[in-house]
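How a chain folds remains the central question behind the approach discussed here. In the encoding step, the backbone of a single protein was reduced to a row of integers, each denoting a local shape. We regard such an encoding as a compact summary of how the chain folds. The sequence in question and its structure tokens are set out directly beneath this paragraph:

___
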Amino acid sequence: MREYLVPALILFCLPPLGAQVAPAGWQTVKDPKNSCQIAVPADWQVYGESRSAAVLHDTSTALAVVTSQPGQTFTPLTEFFQKVLNIRKEKMFENTPKRIFYQDKTSANADDPNSYTFSVPGRAGTCSGRLTFLPSVPEEVARKIALSLGPVPVS
């Protein structure tokens, strides 16, 4: 019984991962098809002609990109693909029918970026994001950006 109690308590304390709600004061960045979106802090600037990316200071400090893949069925990554992509178990944060979220690059020093890759089901396909950030960007901010990914709400 005790072996189930601690994991259950941890799960109840975690914020809901499927919420896809932007924190107060953050801005929304949408993909060019207006299908998928992420949220970034207010001090980030929307970047690029398609306006589907945002940067903090410049692209070498932090870069967040959102894309959509219409018609692509969303499914969790199989163990085979996790091995092909060289995703270590401790860096796979979520791999469920609701979200794929993992760290595919870990910083080796202050000038070397971390990278997150994340995907969720979209309305008619898959929403994906990529976030590259220096260690000076708080990991909690990076996680909030990744967890904000979702389809654009229907008006």
Q: What stands out?
A: Residues 1-19 have pLDDT under 50 and may be disordered.
